[in-house]
Design brief:
Elements (H helix, E strand, L loop, with lengths): L2 H12 L5 H8 L6 E7 L12 E4 L4 E5 L4 E9 L2 E9 L6 H16 L2 E5 L4 E5 L5 E7 L1
Antiparallel strand pairs: 1-2, 1-8, 2-3, 3-4, 4-5, 6-7, 7-8
């Protein structure tokens, strides 16, 4: 049996309600790729009408919008570990509530150290160094 087969069996054992291919994909950093909509930023939640979007590319490039300003940057991804480097953003001004959400989002990115996929809710959960949720996002 190959290493991938053993990995598939081990993951499938823990996620028994899913097919083996789906379970393995959920532990692979490739499952981070794509556009994600922030649904919860523990430092203050999110405004319903404002979209805070994080796009992650397999090569570590990140971009999106904080709700007002567009941003771009890099993430360092190694297995279940992820850290975000400095982001460059436009400097438009929006309403105070939108700017507050955007500031909390950018600050939360600084705290991120790991990630996991919540298979039950189909969410990407970005975690701090203690394993606590920092940002919860839904795939777009």
């Amino acid at each position: 049996m190959t290493a991938d087969s053993w990995r598939c069996l081990a993951v499938a054992f823990f996620v028994s309600s899913m097919g083996c291919q789906s379970a393995v994909a959920m532990t692979d950093s490739k499952s981070l790729n794509g556009r994600w909509l922030a649904e919860d930023i523990p430092r203050g939640g999110v405004l319903d009408r404002i979209q805070t979007i994080l796009e992650i590319n397999v090569n570590g490039a990140v971009s999106g919008t904080g709700g007002c300003n567009r941003f771009t940057g890099r993430a360092s991804i190694a297995g279940k570990k992820i850290t975000f480097g400095s982001v460059a953003s436009t400097r438009m001004a929006c309403t105070p509530a939108v700017m507050d959400q955007e500031g909390k989002f950018f600050a939360a990115l600084d705290d991120v150290r790991a990630w996991r996929i919540d298979a039950t809710r189909h969410k990407l959960v970005l975690l701090d160094g203690n394993g606590n949720p920092v940002i919860v996002l839904a795939r777009m």
